[in-house]
Amino acid sequence: MSWEAGRLDDPRWLEEGDPSGMLRAVASSAAQIRTSYRAAREAGVSSLARDGRPRAVVVAGMGGSGIAGDVLAAVCGHGAPLPIVTVRSYRLPGWVGATDLVIAVSCSGSSEETLAAATEAVRRGCRLLAVGGPGSALEAIARQAGAPFVPVTSGGQPRAGVWALSVPLLAAAAELGLLRVDEETFETVAGRLEEIANRCRPASESFINPGKSLAMELAETIPMVWGSSPLAAVAAHRWACQLNENGKYPAIWGEIPEAGHNQVVTFDGPLAERDIFADEAGRSLRLFVLRDTEEHPQVAKRREASVRLAHDRNVPVTEIAAEGTHPLERLASLIELGDYASTYLALGYGIDPTPVSAITELKTRISQ
Ligand SMILES: O=P(O)(O)OC[C@H]1O[C@](O)(CO)[C@@H](O)[C@@H]1O
User: Residue limits of the SIS domain (predicted)?
Assistant: First the structure.
């Protein structure tokens, strides 16, 4: 498993090194948005508005499905008229009850944590929406409860279907008046994602391909990824998860201002000081700053000062700016680049980005 940047511009390697087609899956983001919006409407998410606004929205999901809850909260923003909470475990918080809407998201429809939370939601009499694999245990729970179910047929890894899994939540929230997105918004976002996919396509060479050049900057570093707003922090979290699952790579994520109260101190630590990769020049720690166009003025100040601080200590920094105006477009642009970068990172190391055998083994071990 050694890093070879040349692999990224070798078309045969990009084909053979990615047998399950993770690059193709990332390129399908725009199509996921269009298909999933139609599926959400056909599944009747508009019926959720009949009972009025819930007291809170609780999204239950794990990994690439759980992130849909963070996407929802980020796009609704800090002006959201009710709490939007993501639960990544077996139990719903004690306060969740009949006046709340629980949205259970599972691509396979079989993650045990999500099934447990959905079952608990039914038991407590909560309103329920389920999103996930057709014919699954999750669909059965939703049907039995008379709740709407949006089928998602991504076929690939859950993390590769992030937009198929997130759009039904956004469509439901729009019906409840929690945010403004319509077909035109989704189309604009899909167009943005197509444009990024074109820039990051395998045939586009490293020096003009942002996905490949980011992978080159990530390689042989310990990446620390910060978001400069709550929205950009969701992208930072997604970057870290994608680096973990696609790249089999460690990553640290944080949000400004919080990162300025702890993670910033690592600029003075051992990994900023020396190279832990024996035969490479340079430092190990690298800061990636995901910049939102809407930042709190104090956060913008803190971001600029943090970048200067890193430069003063010779910690390399990469800054990536969100594109577009609508929050969903800005978030999607940051996420898409991270999805490409983590996939190219895996391919540059000669690793198949798709399988997650350690997760499979973990599940086998706990089932015994
Ligand atoms: O969407 P699902 O099928 O519930 O899976 C959730 C998460 O669990 C995994 O499948 C691994 O257990 C992840 O890859 C995924 O992100």
Answer: 45-184
**Residue owning the nearest CA to atom 3 of ligand 1:** 108
Q: Is 65 near ligand 1, meaning CB less than 6 Å away?
A: yes
CA atoms within 13 A of residue 233's CA, in its CB half-sphere: 16
CA of 129 to the centre of ligand 1 (A): 18
- Calculate mean pLDDT across residues 113-134: 97
Rounded Cα distance between 366 and 111, Å, is 13
φ, ψ of residue 38 in degrees (nearest 5): -65, -45
Prediction ipTM score: 0.96
Atom 7 of ligand 1, residue of closest alpha carbon? 63
Q: What is the pTM of this model?
A: 0.96
- Distance (angstroms) between ligand 1 centre and the Cα of 239 equals 16
What CATH number was assigned to the domain covering residues 5-20+202-348?
3.40.50.10490
Name which of 331, 329, 324, 342 is nearest 211 in CA terms.
342
Ligand 1 centroid–CA 252 distance in Å is 20
Q: What is the pLDDT of residues 176-206, one digit of tens each?
A: 999 999 999 999 999 999 999 999 999 999 9
- What is the 108 CA–ligand 1 centroid distance (Å)? 7
* Domains 5-20+202-348 and 27-181 are alike in CATH topology: yes
Residue range 27-181 in CATH 3.40.50.10490: yes
